[in-house]
Amino acid sequence: MAAVLTPFEELALRSIIAVSVGALLYAVLLARQVLREPKGSGRSLQVWDAIRQGANAYLRQQFRSIAPLLGLLAVVLYLSAYAAEAPLSISLGRAGAFLMGAFFSASVGYLGMNMAVQGNIRTAHVAGRSFRDALRVSYRSGTVTGMLTDGLGLLGGTVIFMSYLTHAPEVLLGFGFGGTLLALFMRVGGGIYTKAADVGADLVGKIEKGIPEDDPRNAAVIADLVGDNVGDCAGMAADIFESYEVTMVSAMLLGLAIRPFDFKWIIFPLLVRAIGVLSTIAGTYCVALWPDSVTKENAFKAMDLSYDLSSAIPAVSFFFLAYYYVNDLRVFLATGVGIGLAISFNKLADYFTSPSRRPVDQIARSARTGAAPLLLSGLALGFESTVWTLLVIAATIVASVIFFTGAGPIFAMYGVALAGIGMLTLTGNNVSMDAFGPIADNAGGIGEMSGADSETREALAKLDAAGNTTKAVTKAIAIASAVIAAISLFASYAESIGLGGTGLNIADPLIFVGLLIGGSLPFLFSSISVRAVGRTASRIIEEVRRQFRIPGVMEGTTTPDYARVVAIVTSAAQRELIGLAILGIFTPIVVGLLLNEVALGAFLAGVILVGQLLAVFMANTGAAWDNAKKKIEDGYYGGKGSEEHKASVIGDTVGDPLKDTAGPALNPMIKVINLVSLLFAPAIIHLRGSPMVSSILALALIAVLVVVILRSKREASEMTEGETAAVAEKAK
Amino acid sequence: MAAVLTPFEELALRSIIAVSVGALLYAVLLARQVLREPKGSGRSLQVWDAIRQGANAYLRQQFRSIAPLLGLLAVVLYLSAYAAEAPLSISLGRAGAFLMGAFFSASVGYLGMNMAVQGNIRTAHVAGRSFRDALRVSYRSGTVTGMLTDGLGLLGGTVIFMSYLTHAPEVLLGFGFGGTLLALFMRVGGGIYTKAADVGADLVGKIEKGIPEDDPRNAAVIADLVGDNVGDCAGMAADIFESYEVTMVSAMLLGLAIRPFDFKWIIFPLLVRAIGVLSTIAGTYCVALWPDSVTKENAFKAMDLSYDLSSAIPAVSFFFLAYYYVNDLRVFLATGVGIGLAISFNKLADYFTSPSRRPVDQIARSARTGAAPLLLSGLALGFESTVWTLLVIAATIVASVIFFTGAGPIFAMYGVALAGIGMLTLTGNNVSMDAFGPIADNAGGIGEMSGADSETREALAKLDAAGNTTKAVTKAIAIASAVIAAISLFASYAESIGLGGTGLNIADPLIFVGLLIGGSLPFLFSSISVRAVGRTASRIIEEVRRQFRIPGVMEGTTTPDYARVVAIVTSAAQRELIGLAILGIFTPIVVGLLLNEVALGAFLAGVILVGQLLAVFMANTGAAWDNAKKKIEDGYYGGKGSEEHKASVIGDTVGDPLKDTAGPALNPMIKVINLVSLLFAPAIIHLRGSPMVSSILALALIAVLVVVILRSKREASEMTEGETAAVAEKAK
Fold this sequence. Notes:
By secondary structure, the first copy, chain A, is mostly helical.
């Protein structure tokens, strides 16, 4: 039993803190480099300024509207620790860590998005100078977000651990919850915003008025561009930060639960992460340094090569770390499985959604007999893809069980958590590549609008193409890491409620009921979020139509009120996400109070199982429809404007809210539910001691949930002509 | 401990057998009544004859192709009991009961379908005479199937129990498995057949050639009509028979597992069923006897009134049975919950899928902005509907737990099984109403084709409208009963493997893996069955196109070769369903061998949870799209031929294979998997004693599964000319 740190461990932890601070400094350095670049001038700067203002207005509004909830939750967390008779330092620590996690997550989203906005305009400008410069500026803008993710996540986790040592779990949970809850807000809010604005702008502009996309007469055009930033940049960044943070928290929780206890189980994952940060710094910096032969034609190749460079460093060092420090090669194997998992998920996502592979080709081909066959083959593909991704996850768990044979279930689950650590070792690279996508995309848009010359446009188009590839790659890793983290949290939960001999026995009827209810929740969540997109879009449509009726707007002599549309979609998205957040926070507490804490464990298993299946289904089906459409637009099976193309547009439109709103929102949702359960299990057990109090509380929470659900249905039914139109769009 | 029957129990069991034989005799009586009616003559008789031949050819082919598999499985079942060192009487009994279950299920499907075919033509003919006669003939044709279901199910279960008493479980499992496996074949095969023929006929006929539906020049037109019979009649009948049988078997299994042991726990559900049979006979016979004020305008009202009459008898008698025989009112309460469950499911299905309710109205309205909004609102509706149905099931389990507080989990699960018994008390009425649907539908079709007068047509149209309502009502009960039966089987499984203290602890990593794999299986199954419809349809399309190229066919001077299309779709559907059956039978064995029997238990829970969610999702989404289309065709939101209508046709076409093939197939699938696990658990435990043998066996089974899955992905139709010809020859 090592309850104090060895001198080596002290040194290691201080080094890890140094590395994470280094990551942040590196982010500052890169940001300064990018900001030194010229922005250009004229029309593009005006557009850019409107986007920047809109995006910031959205995030400010978001932070303002959730601040009271965060404050309230911090108090509740303090009380929950207090009720469990934790010392003051821990109760305060938990509440503080919660706020810190939320603040970090918000910062990564906010700064990452602003960096992207700054990167857009500069990339567009320097693309006229050289392709390499454009690649450097856009990629490094993205890397800022990557390094913030790494640095803040590692810093927070390490500092909490050093401060609390064996008491760290209580506080780490707060940290994880803060980050995850914020990520839920950013993901869901951003997802609703971006799809609703997209659909709203297109429906009135392109379809009703017959004006081009991104036409400045359309009042929703700025909201649409803002949506790309708040959804693809801020939402994505907060989401990956949360995954990075929660995989770490769950590994540390399980590491602290291992008996006989030893700090090496916690310090090993932190060291792995620190090495990952250093590797990322080395790799990402090289992207713009590779010889012309690499970067000139193929931006993706440059990033890929950097990724390989980054990967080489950990592969070697993990081995030595496991061998010399932990004295246990099993942790090396488990971490290695995580890297294999990342690769497998990549390959699966690529196979099921790449336009050049057979599945998407089959979907595109089925458009020859109409929209229905295309839709059905997409559904069949999505159904199937869930099976293989789930088998890969199952294989990861089995591998971990085999490595830790005889060491007991906690060790095996710790191994699974290490796979999560391994998988996200190169989070910095992943985020860089992911953030690069929308930056390149927006730079291309700005280039178009500002009338750049053909050479510049060509360079920007090349960047954009590379961006599409990187997005798909990182999305798969985000889903996989969410599931692994959730499974680790679930294991922590089972450990924390001290099940003893009986375990989470789902043959017990009440516990089985918990499993059933948990399984239904992702369906409810998806239903509400799909409808939320439709409702929000309908609000935009009304406003854009109203503005088109103002004399001068359609003629282009009066500038439309962009800010008003931005404000409308901002407040609508806010309203929607509060309901979803309440669903995530209240449901586990109700299940715990009405059934019991063991049934709540089974509930978590149900949420994870079905959440994972639905998330993968929606992501892959949506991406496959999207790419089938792109394939047809590239001239296959009839090409643009054909009946086949019309069919594929229907598929793409159906897939959009699935893959960009409902699906990605399930990742943080699953983890919020797990963390809420972990945090409130002691309070639930305590409350169940007085059936009267717990019944009243449960009924009160149910009342709130019913209101939330009914509201989501009622507003749907009030959809006016324009409202339903919301979701419809490009199809015609 | 009562190991022998009391004289009262002897008498009760003999009475139950008498009742079930009475049900069969009543079926014979009704059949003779129907067959005495005139068939009419001329053109309609020709069409009818072709349908009859095609349908019978399909079923004969189906029985022929699965006979070897049944024989093989009977031997395997014999060996599996033998390996578990069961006495010869039990090993033989299990194999024999398996064959009996399969034979009963097949008979219900075969006879029910033939009765429907006989009923069609006669209903069409007597509709010219009086509406009451048409109602009588069509409803009584359906009642024959209902009484066969009741009589054979009750007879089989009771005879087995009387013969084996405490050893009955071993043998009952065989009986349940036989019925369920056959139902899987009939449901999947029929589902693929009916949808593929429908799509194939419409696509070439209506869309490519622009000729009306049911045009005799279309070579697939007979196959399409055959499909209605093999899917909606034979498939449905076998499926409900299986539900009736398995709810009974699972209640008996749990009744036998209760300690202290008492035969009353088994005899009570049998008595409940017998009372149900008598009530059904009384109620169904009255349908055509109600005064004109009831039957004249509203066929549904007549059926509904009969249902109420049938319900009144059990409600009273169950109470007395529970009070005086079982001396335990809890069993009355649990059975009553089942009736509440049936009502709740009805209401939910009605709310989510009825054209006059708000959800379908919203979907229809969203068609004004195109197909994509219509599709998305249908998906959101389907997602949401799963949540409420699942909560109703959860409430059923919780109610049972509350009734049997302190009596332990087996009692609670026995209560759940009793809910299944209560829910299916009036199966005879349900089947009568369900079979009535396609009979009325086909009678209408025959009336149209044979050029009946307008009064006759109007009477037939009224019948048809009533049929649409009854179908929706009974479908909901079929799904609910499947889940309840599966949960009871799952409980039996957990009991049978003797878990002791540790239970089905899903916090154990390997057991959690079992849950994950189980959850993914319904997705795989749905993916394969949706694709199977597409593949089979493509074979039909090719053939119909080929025949249209034959000179004279398009001109109507040469009769197309209907039999050839029937033969093609028959053999294609067969090929598809063998793969799916292998998936259902092999997967649980592989999971048991590779992981262990406890993980297999969690696997079952995963299959039930996700299977239920997907089945409800597909049923409700498909039905809602279908009814949204019908609503538009009734003149709302643009009416027939509008853009809205086109959008709704896309929705309907996407929904068809979901609601009529993939969704309904999940019901028997879930139970096949549970029964296979129950049957082979002892063998699996035995085999795992020698890791070498079990690994080799597992790998061999996996190899077969991989082949099945890969084959299902391969693109359509390499059926050679020779093969087609061979099948066509056989079918004649």
